[in-house]
Amino acid sequence: MIDRTFKDLDLSDDIVTRWRPFRGKKSIVIDPQRAFGQPIATLYGVPTIVLAEATTAEGSIERVSYLYDVPVPVVRDAISFENTLLVA
Question: Which domain holds residue 15?
Answer without folding.
Answer: 2-87
